[in-house]
Specification:
The chain is α+β, with helices and mostly antiparallel strands. It has 15 helices and 40 strands. It starts with a helix and ends with a strand.
């Protein structure tokens, strides 16, 4: 039986959507197409001596033979004399099921990464790699790699029904094989694409995907994962060290530390410094170092710059075994236009919008995901779950949420469209975010989802069931901008900007907030954290200590970007390591690092720092005197129930005992040696830390002995204490 000439020519031209319909075994005929083959023979698997040469039907490399025997192997010989044997890729039935395709098309296949991409499989006793990719508008999709000399006509895939998913099982391939998808568009254009679901890629500038098994790692963090699942993710202390893996430390000027080296150096450092979590700037594969990871081309692959996926897993595992959570920046708001990435994937705007007013960020030069397309939504939700469930991450910080929520974000009026009601809101993005957070909270209890959201959108941290977006925390960008603006003022002018310190408490109850001093504030000419502070070197250091202590006392979870704890004067650059030499050469930098370590550990130890901080004024926080703008002094207290072995401690009169911390903050260089402060409860108040302690580089104005309160009404309180208030300093007193 000779092949249909029309189908044969479609194979030859590389435009057949279902090559299995003509290639492989059909009744008593086996057909093979290989443009590089001079001759092809077929032999019986169980009897290799039973061999037959195939007949060439077309000079392009189309062969056919009558074959009524059992399972067979193919023997190829090229014109140059090369020879190889393989099972026939076109003799296998589809692997993806109707249910897989239905769920994916419905946007609810939350483990689609187990189906699409490249996976080592054994099918009918034959080991190989199953490839699958979504490209509904392509004319042809082929798997190419070293194994077929990157020839796009040797392994064309078949499209499964009307799903847009292409699939091919290639026998004999294994872990470590490099590959891409060659995609031919309807208009005939051909492009090579990295696998969107690849779990490992080549080191840039190379862009091929690599067959990899992420299930091969043996996790040792079972106790951590079980404990996490039983805990509300925002109850308790959260103090995050944000970092960029490629520039925290380096070997020499240009060589990155590997994931393994970071495991041995970074993990003990973070533990020594007393942080509860690390937050990695994006580690998903990206082509350009200068993007810091925010322009992703490999959403399912940790960047190969620092090592393999298993080595990254071992880094996460090590943090967990040392009691430290791991968060990651995640970028579902946009993606780059790199030719090997998601852009124009099947020759059409597939992951993005066709209309540039919907599909592009003009200022960023990137493309916007089409959240209304169910397969795109599925891609992103499955990706979020992938990092949580497969890499054991404890949460995601979702980048640029505001740009997702508003159709006109960063655009002129002629560059944007409105929604169906004439408004700015991107309803499809809102539904995607709600769906994602709902599924994560349902499947992954204890996971911390944080939004970088810079507008007044209501309900960012309300559950989706209550018409919120469903995040656990929101970055408090307003507090950050106000606070850094205030600290940048010369101390003589600060009294005119006093409200910048107090305003955040006016809206603190509206969301669950995280206070951040992030990477965005120490780049692009903004200056390092310490260089934002006015004055000479001593004053800069004193201001920095006061700023960090005020941040610790203010309600909200905490985040500090790497380098801030060193008081590094130089702006951060992704191209080089932090200025660690400062610790060897200058005492005041060592003192700042020690100070940050000590306040981190104090934060962990003292429950009032983080108790009830989501309840706004009167919960775990109250002002004592927020209005002393003339002296730039601010006083407040934090409180929490006093417990012993998880039981409430009672006062002598039977009332619940309280742990109380009083914060006295002076943002001028003028000391006040006899300053009276109202206190909420009568008793002895002992200073547990002062930013002016000489061991931290301060002037040493401290309250070394406990102060017993006087029955003198002050600051609207019936009791008060008299203390020494240090210059550019914060004193923290604890009720004994």
């Amino acid at each position: 039986m000779t092949a249909n000439i029309n189908e044969l020519m479609k194979i030859v031209e590389g435009s057949h959507g279902n090559p299995h319909n003509i290639l492989g075994r059909h009744g008593s005929v086996v057909r093979v197409f290989n443009p590089e083959a001079a001759a092809v023979s077929i032999f019986e698997l169980e009897n290799p001596e039973k061999i037959r040469e195939m007949t060439k039907l077309h000079d392009s490399g189309f062969f056919e033979v009558e074959w009524s025997d059992g399972e067979y192997m193919l023997d190829f010989q090229t014109h140059s004399g090369e020879n190889w044997q393989t099972r026939d890729p076109y003799s296998f039935e589809p692997v993806l099921t109707d249910l897989d395709l239905h769920l994916f098309g419905n946007g609810t296949h939350y483990e689609i990464y187990n189906k699409l991409g490249a996976h080592v499989r054994t099918i009918n006793g034959v080991k190989g790699v199953l490839f699958a990719v979504w490209a509904p508008n392509a004319n042809r999709v082929s798997v190419v790699g070293d194994f077929n000399n990157w020839h796009g006509l040797r392994h064309p895939m078949r499209i499964l029904q009307h799903s847009g998913v292409w699939e091919l099982f290639v026998p004999s391939l294994d872990l470590g094989d490099k590959y891409k998808f060659e995609v031919k568009s309807i208009n005939g254009d051909i492009q090579l694409k990295t696998d969107p679901y690849s779990s490992y890629n080549e080191i840039r500038p190379a862009t091929a995907s690599i067959v990899y098994d992420i299930e091969d790692y043996n996790w040792q963090d079972e106790a951590w994962i079980k404990k996490r699942a039983k805990k509300d993710p925002i109850v308790g202390a959260i103090n995050i060290y944000e970092l960029h893996l490629g520039s925290w430390q380096r070997k020499g000027d240009n060589e990155f530390l590997t994931y393994t080296e970071l495991r041995h150096q970074l993990v003990p450092y973070v533990k020594k410094m007393g942080y509860t979590h690390v937050e990695f700037m994006p580690i998903m594969e990206y082509p350009f170092d200068g993007s810091w990871g925010y322009q992703v081309t490999g959403y399912f692959a940790p960047t190969s710059r620092y090592g393999t996926p298993a080595e990254f897993m071992a880094l996460v595992d090590a943090f967990h075994q040392n009691g430290i959570g791991v968060l990651m920046d995640w970028v579902p708001a946009h993606f780059p236009k790199d030719a090997h990435g998601l852009a124009n994937f099947d020759g059409t705007a597939l992951y993005e919008h066709q209309d540039p007013r919907l599909g592009e960020h003009p200022d960023w030069g990137t493309l916007i995901f089409n959240y209304g397309r169910k397969e795109v939504m599925n891609f992103l939700i499955a990706n979020a779950l992938f990092w949580i469930e497969k890499y054991h991450l404890d949460g995601l910080r979702v980048d640029a949420v505001a740009s997702m929520l508003y159709l006109d974000y960063g655009k002129r009026s002629d560059q944007a469209v409105t929604n169906q009601y004439g408004g700015r809101e991107n309803h499809e993005a809102v539904e995607f975010i709600k769906h994602m957070n709902s599924i994560i909270s349902e499947r992954c209890p204890g996971i911390l989802m944080t939004a970088e959201e810079s507008t007044e959108w209501a309900g960012v941290t309300k559950p989706a069931s209550e018409d919120g977006l469903g995040f656990n925390l929101k970055w408090n960008m307003g507090w950050m901008n106000d606070f850094l603006s205030y600290m940048n003022e010369d101390s003589v002018h600060r009294k005119y900007h006093h409200n910048k310190l107090t305003f955040a408490m006016m809206y603190n109850h509206s969301e669950n907030f995280m206070l951040v001093l992030s990477h965005d504030e120490v780049v692009h000419g903004k200056g390092s954290l310490v260089n934002k502070m006015p004055g000479d070197t001593w004053q800069k250091m004193a201001n920095l200590r006061a700023a960090l202590m005020f941040m610790m006392g203010h309600p909200g979870k905490k985040l500090l970007f790497m380098g801030g704890e060193l008081a590094q004067f130089e702006e951060w650059s992704e191209a080089k390591a932090l200025n660690w030499f400062l610790l060897d050469e200058f005492e005041h930098h060592r003192q700042i690092q020690n100070f940050v370590r000590d306040i981190n550990k104090l934060y962990l130890k003292e429950k009032p720092f983080w108790h009830n901080e989501d309840q706004g004024y009167g919960g775990g926080f109250e002002w004592i005197n927020p209005n002393d703008a003339e002296h730039s002094i601010l006083t407040f207290f934090r409180r929490a129930p006093k417990t012993y072995r998880n039981k409430q401690v009672k006062n002598d009169d039977g009332t619940d005992a309280q742990d109380i911390l009083v914060f006295v903050c002076n943002f001028t260089p003028v000391p006040w040696l006899q300053h009276r402060v109202g206190v909420p409860i009568a008793g002895n108040y002992a200073e547990i830390i002062s930013t002016d302690d000489s061991k931290y580089g301060g002037s040493g104005i401290m309250n070394t002995a406990p102060r017993h309160s006087d029955d003198i009404e002050w600051d609207g309180r019936p009791h008060s204490v008299e203390i020494a208030v240090p210059p550019l300093g914060v004193s923290v007193l604890k009720l004994q």
